[in-house]
Design a protein that fits this description.
Layout (H helix, E strand, L loop, with lengths): L2 H17 L11 E4 L2 E5 L10 E4 L1 H4 L9 H6 L9 E4 L8 E4 L7 E7 L2 E4 L1 H4 L8 E7 L8 E6 L5 E5 L5 E3 L11 E7 L8 E6 L16 H4 E4 L2 E4 L7 E6 L2 E6 L2 E2 L1 E5 L5 E3 L3 H4 E2 L10 E2 L1 E7 L8 E6 L6 E5 L5 E3 L8 E2 L4 E5 L8 E5 L6 H4 L6 E5 L2 E4 L3 E5 L5 E3 L1 H4 L7 E7 L8 E6 L8 H14 L14 E2 L1 E5 L5 E3 L9 E2 L1 E7 L8 E6 L5 E5 L5 E7 L11 E5 L5 E4 L2 E2 L10 E4 L7 E6 L4 E8 L3 E6 L4 E2 L14 E3 L33 E4 L8 E4 L8 E5 L5 E4 L12 E8 L4 E7 L12 E7 L2 E7 L5 E8 L8 E8 L11 E6 L2 E4 L1 H6 L5 E8 L8 E10 L1 E6 L2 E4 L10 E3 L3 E4 ...
Parallel strand pairs: 21-26, 27-31, 43-50, 85-91
Antiparallel strand pairs: 1-2, 2-50, 3-42, 4-5, 5-6, 6-7, 8-9, 9-10, 10-11, 12-13, 12-46, 13-19, 14-15, 16-17, 18-22, 19-20, 23-24, 24-25, 25-26, 28-29, 29-32, 30-31, 32-33, 34-35, 35-37, 36-39, 37-38, 40-41, 41-42, 43-47, 44-45, 44-48, 48-49, 49-51, 52-84, 53-54, 54-55, 55-56, 57-58, 58-59, ...
């Protein structure tokens, strides 16, 4: 062949490839009929790339602009919320058409003629609907004739229904039952009452805000509110607009929105509005409450709890909380339990559902307005509402991860989705077809009323003129890029907006998803504000399977059905929905990733009536239409049948103890503290104070409260009791505790914080000698540093226990180093150890302490956790402690460490270290290899220590303040040179304080995960605890073999609500059990399986087999909340072992033990400690689980001597003496 012939062949091949490329639209699909379904081949192309391509209006012929005049906005600012778009094949030609809503002009219907080209057929279709201020639109077959009808909401007029004749011609339905608008927005349809047809929910905003009805003078607080007794009331006529909201002891005047509307389908394609709404909407306790005057933006139906009934989530703007309504199966809804969701977004805009980690449970995402860019975020007004029903609301997105029992952990910070700018339409979609759904959001707003500088200027002008007319028009325009976030398959997301096709700034609102080019992947349409609407074409060529449904009339699209695909990389599931995207409705089609090598995928459709269709032999690059007529009814699995009981049973009624926490305003002492310092307790300890052989329970108190003492009566019951001296009102917060038995008494040391007492002269702790019901006391001298943890061990080897008192911080001087101290035990009295205490002077902000013989040399070493610092390891050398932290690399892990404990997690006989931290689900996350920094100094030279909480900002390439300008008012002279929020947002820490940040004292954090440091011959290796452990802050880490399998497990106490308002509290934990595998790895156990479900701020915790059944029971404290007692119900029984030491150390503190099996192998070593974890102490008696039959026990006594004690054949409880 000639060279020219070769050239022709090559160029011809490439031309063919171009023509077959992924961007080309398919011809009409060629359908193949099978029993119960039909399918068609798809042509995804060869040269695709992940993402979307904007289709020019000149190519698509879509010339629609949702234009809104300034005059309309000035009269009614709710016009700014824009309009939506919906998609459906209205004429049955096999191509999906587009309908766009307009606020001031006519709506438009565009017929899809293929090739991503469209023709305006609005007039022929009779769908102009001009003059109705259209907002929401959705195609849905409401009369069961298989043709998509059209529902339209209006901002100010009536909501309507158009009936489709099947040829794309529509008739306005008279007497549809839909009523006048109340500022209507999004519609969602589902069969809520299981009668087969689609019912309708409409979210309502408000016809017009009160700010567009009255002047600023008329709306002043003085003119609208008066005091009536001890309460505030709104005076007429303003009481029809405002209400007084009480939360966290404060009252607010807030404007109400409008009630949403629920319509029941009469069965003939018309609707009846629910007027007896209290019968349909119940509170969490089952009492009628009805609907609320919320600012409704988006509503969506989804079967959240997998009971086959569509539940309802409503995203509400402003202060009105979101609503999660659980369908009771009969068309009535019950508010989800307050523990189901622990915090919410403040101004929620959109919502969508997905199984983001493919674990089979439904998760969901709620969008809000927080900016991801520092320079914009610091110019935004941040609104925060203290807990209503226990749920605070924050300016941030929320991502709710289903724990498996249909309660949710909010993990937006962990997932990197907290801030996506001013977001509207929110949709999960597998953009890259990897089996995991990504996120796509529309953004922007015509007038950025969150801009603080404009707000300040308008307030100045209003105070002079008392006029507010047209104020919204004075704010700057906020054009933004839309967002696409890739699901990384590990519960985190990465912003791919620009690389996936969002390259321009605009104001985008409604969005509809559909396969517009018949290639089996999702394209989408956006209705923008005062800008032409836009179509985006999906560019991927990845293998896919697309599915639509043909349901039985009247639910002909199978709305509410669940489609499951098996055979690809992961099992995927999608529920078919109607509406529920902000003011929009998408094509009811599911898009799945496929395995091109597998010709036997399986599709399973579970229809709303619980019938099931199953299709085998499903292949990639096909679209399937599944017909319900061939579905088979299958017996429903009895979900009420009892499985294995949870590991722990709640027995908290035995103690009924609530931790006392005085209200104390730490920020009056230091206004810019990163967290409250007064809410760090309580601690928990198990000790046998009455020497009857049974562990009793101690729970420390806050200032002004009384320690909880619970005597074990020997019958598996605890009884509240008091001990003279010890049970007096606490002068300060009781912090850590440590206790041990001597020959005649229990010695109990309680740390005492001086912070709230206001004096360094008060005792830093008390040592009680307890003799049954009485005690004498020794005061431990006070210092400037306030007391944190307490731990005891015989570090000088003289036979009695010595004491460590950790310095948590210095009041008024945070975060300067605090001082800790060691006390030697001299004939029962504690005397400060001057040599060692000098080494501990200014050792840092000590939060946890535990003595452990890490080097196995027979004497106790000391491990400290420190805030804004590293873990400290201090080696005992002949009674003197030497800091060896750097030698083992602990200095490389600087964190907000809370607690520290040890355990032999890899079974090598040496103690490993576990340390709790703030976790990975907070705003405190180091980025780009730069640590977080806490700068401190007297910056304004007024004698008060100032703090600047900061992080590294890549755009400025400098450290910048985390807090807003108005939060920095404690340094007025320093900030005098800052003239605007805009200037402040562009300023580095160095700019603000006027000096090189390198010369400013600071503390830093480069590690936020909870970590385990596994020992080995070469030192320690650091590993983060499992992913689910990182969802919240943790405090106590407690080691025990909870399931008695011979491997050490962990319990973590979780949550921290002590941050300033506006800093998101950490509430995604409820106490976490981590089961160890004996090699240093752990598996998180869900709460409904472990039985541990504590929703407050857990602090100290302690383990004891207090009922002596060979199982480790657990007591957990909560700051300002009730203590919880769990009884272990493990199937296996462990060995109960108690060591008895000499007179000064009867509990053999500092000893360790490990089982020896018949084959010579050994179990993990367990140490006996006084003080560990977080301000707590476990029982000295141990429960050792067995992996196999144990023959003996290896005891390493506190003095380093080792011996082997034989175990009997049938024995379960042992006592061994020194």
């Amino acid at each position: 062949m000639s060279l020219f012939g070769h050239f022709k062949k090559i160029t011809g091949f490439f031309l063919l490839m171009v023509l077959m490329g992924s961007c080309s639209s398919s011809d009409d699909l060629q359908w193949h009929q099978e029993e119960g379904y039909q399918w068609a081949e798809l042509s995804p192309g060869f040269f695709g790339s992940t993402g979307f391509k904007k289709v020019d209006a000149s190519d698509s012929n879509i010339d629609f602009i949702n234009s809104v005049s300034r005059a309309s906005i000035e009269e009614n600012r709710n016009f700014l919320n824009g309009s939506g778009v919906t998609t459906a094949d209205v004429d049955g030609d096999g191509w999906v058409d587009i309908y766009l809503a307009s606020l001031e002009g006519p709506n438009k219907l565009y017929r899809n003629i293929g090739g991503l080209q469209f023709v305006d057929i609005t007039e022929e279709a009779n769908l102009a609907h001009k003059g109705y201020n259209s907002t929401g639109v959705i195609f849905a077959d409401v009369n069961g004739d298989s043709h998509p009808d059209l529902l339209i909401t209006s901002l100010t007029k009536e909501n309507v229904l158009y009936i489709n004749d099947g040829k794309g011609r529509f008739t306005l339905k008279e007497n549809s039952g839909l009523q006048d608008s109340r500022g209507s927005n999004t519609m969602a349809l589902a069969d809520i009452d299981a009668d087969g047809d689609l019912d309708l929910y409409i979210s309502n905003y408000k016809l017009k805000t009160v700010r567009d009805l009255y002047s600023a003078d008329e709306l002043s607080t003085e003119n609208t509110v008066r005091k009536q007794g001890d309460s505030l009331v709104v005076v007429p006529p303003f009481d029809q607009y405002y209400g007084i909201i009480k939360t966290d002891g404060r009252s607010y005047r807030n404007e109400y929105g409008a009630k949403d509307h629920l319509y029941i389908n009469r069965g003939d394609g018309t609707f009846e509005k629910v007027t007896d709404e209290k019968k349909h909407f119940l509170n969490a306790e089952g009492r009628p409450v009805g609907l609320f005057r919320d600012w409704g933006l988006t509503a969506k139906f989804q079967d959240i709890n997998s009971d086959g009934h569509p539940d309802l989530f409503v995203a509400n703007d402003f202060w009105t909380p979101d609503r999660l309504w659980m369908n009771q199966g009969d068309g009535t809804f019950r508010s989800a339990d307050k523990h189901a969701i622990r915090s919410m977004s403040f101004s929620s805009m959109g919502v969508d559902f997905s199984d983001i980690n493919r674990d089979g449970f439904t998760d969901f995402f709620v969008s809000e307005m927080l900016s991801s860019r520092h320079q914009r975020r610091l110019r935004q007004l941040s609104e925060h509402l203290d807990p209503i029903d226990g749920r605070p609301q924050y300016n941030r997105n929320s991502l709710y991860l289903n724990r498996g029992d249909h309660t949710f952990a909010e993990i937006s910070s962990y997932a990197n989705v907290t801030a996506t700018e001013w977001s509207w339409a929110t949709n999960f979609l597998d953009i890259d077809l990897d089996g995991y759904e990504d996120l796509i959001l529309t953004t922007g707003y015509a007038f950025d009323y969150q801009d603080l500088d404009t707000q300040i200027e308008l307030n100045r002008q209003t105070s002079r003129t008392m006029q507010s007319t047209g104020d919204i028009l004075r704010y700057p325009r906020l054009d933004l890029p839309n967002r696409m976030l890739r699901n990384n398959q590990d519960l985190t997301f990465t912003d791919k907006s620009e690389s996936w096709g969002f390259t321009e700034d605009d104001i985008s609102l409604g969005m509809a998803i559909a396969d517009l080019d018949n290639d089996g992947d999702a394209d989408f349409v956006i209705n923008r504000f005062n800008t032409e609407a836009v179509v985006y074409q999906n560019q991927t060529s990845a293998p896919r399977i697309a599915v639509t449904l043909k349901g039985k009339p009247p639910n002909t699209a199978g709305i509410g059905a669940k489609i499951r695909l098996e055979g690809a990389k992961v099992v995927q599931q999608k529920q078919i929905s109607a509406g529920g995207s902000y003011v929009s409705g998408s094509q009811p089609m599911a898009f799945f990733a496929a395995d091109p090598e597998n010709i036997n995928h399986q599709l399973t459709v579970t229809w709303p009536d619980e019938s099931v269709s199953t299709i085998d032999g499903v292949q990639s690059n096909r679209v399937y239409v599944v017909d319900q007529s061939s579905a088979v009814m299958k017996s429903r699995r009895d979900s009420s049948s009892e499985g294995e009981p949870p590991l722990f049973r709640d027995a908290s009624d035995q103690i009924a103890y609530v931790h006392h926490e005085d209200r104390y305003t730490d920020f009056n002492v230091q206004p810019l503290l990163p967290a409250l310092l007064s809410r760090q307790g309580p601690g928990v300890g198990w000790m046998d104070y009455d020497r009857d052989g049974y562990d009793d329970l101690f729970i420390t108190s806050g200032k002004g409260g009384q320690i909880g003492i619970f005597r074990n009566n020997g019958n598996s019951e605890l009884e509240r009791t008091e001990i003279e001296e010890l049970s007096r009102s606490a002068g300060g917060d009781q912090t850590g505790l440590a206790g041990w038995q001597t020959e005649k008494r229990l010695k109990l040391v309680l740390g005492s914080a001086n912070f709230e007492q206001g004096s360094p002269q008060v005792p830093s702790g008390f040592m009680y000698n307890i003799d049954n019901t009485s005690a004498d006391v020794q005061e431990l001298p006070g210092v400037l540093s306030t007391t944190g943890p307490v731990a005891a061990s015989d570090y000088d080897g003289d036979g009695d226990l010595d004491l460590f008192i950790g310095g948590a911080f210095m009041p008024g001087e945070y975060p300067r180093n605090a001082s800790s101290r060691l006390f030697r035990n001299e004939n029962g009295h504690f005397v400060r150890d001057p040599v060692n205490s000098r080494r501990f002077n200014e050792i840092g902000l000590v939060s946890g302490a535990v003595f452990t013989d890490y080097d196995r040399d027979g004497d106790p070493d000391l491990v400290l956790s420190r805030s804004w610092d590293s873990i400290a390891l201090l080696e005992n050398r002949d009674g003197n402690f030497i800091d060896v932290s750097t030698d083992y690399g602990f200095n490389n892990y600087k964190g907000w460490w809370h607690g520290v404990a040890t355990g032999d997690f890899n079974g090598d006989g040496c103690p490993d270290i576990v340390a709790t931290n703030i976790g990975s689900n907070s705003i405190y996350k180091p980025t780009g290899g730069h640590p977080l920094k806490l700068f401190y100094g007297d910056f304004d030279v007024n004698g008060t220590l100032d703090i600047i909480d900061s992080y590294y900002e890549s755009d400025l390439q400098a450290y910048v303040p985390r807090r807003k300008l108005y939060e920095m008012d404690s340094m007025p002279s320093l900030l005098g040179r800052i003239t605007s929020h805009k200037q402040y947002a562009r300023s580095s820490v160095g700019d603000i304080v006027g000096q090189d940040p390198g010369t400013i004292p600071s503390r830093e954090i480069n590690t936020v995960q909870h970590m385990i440091f596994l020992s080995s011959e070469s030192g320690f290796s650091a590993y983060p605890l499992p992913r689910k452990a990182q969802f919240s802050a943790a405090f106590h880490a407690g080691t025990a073999d909870f399931n008695n399998d011979g491997k050490e497990d962990l319990f973590l106490s979780q949550n921290d609500f002590s941050f300033p308002s506006g800093i998101f509290r950490l509430d995604a934990g409820r106490g976490l059990l981590l089961l160890g595998d004996g090699h240093g790895h752990f598996r998180a156990v869900p709460g409904h399986q472990s039985g541990i479900e504590i929703y407050g701020e857990q602090r100290g915790a302690a383990v004891s087999d207090f009922n002596k059944d060979g199982r480790a029971d657990l007591a957990v404290s909560q700051n300002g909340g009730p203590a919880v007692l769990y009884i272990n119900q493990a199937q296996r029984q462990g060995l109960y072992v108690r060591l008895i030491g000499p007179a000064g150390n009867r509990n053999a503190i500092g000893s360790s033990m490990r089982l020896v099996y018949e084959d010579g192998s050994k179990g993990p070593a367990r140490e006996i400690q006084a003080g560990s974890g977080y301000r707590s102490q476990h029982s000295a008696a141990q429960v050792l689980g067995t992996e196999e039959k144990a023959s003996s026990l290896e005891i390493r006594w506190f003095d380093g001597t080792t011996e082997i004690r034989e175990l009997s054949e049938e024995g379960r409880a042992y006592t061994f003496r020194y």
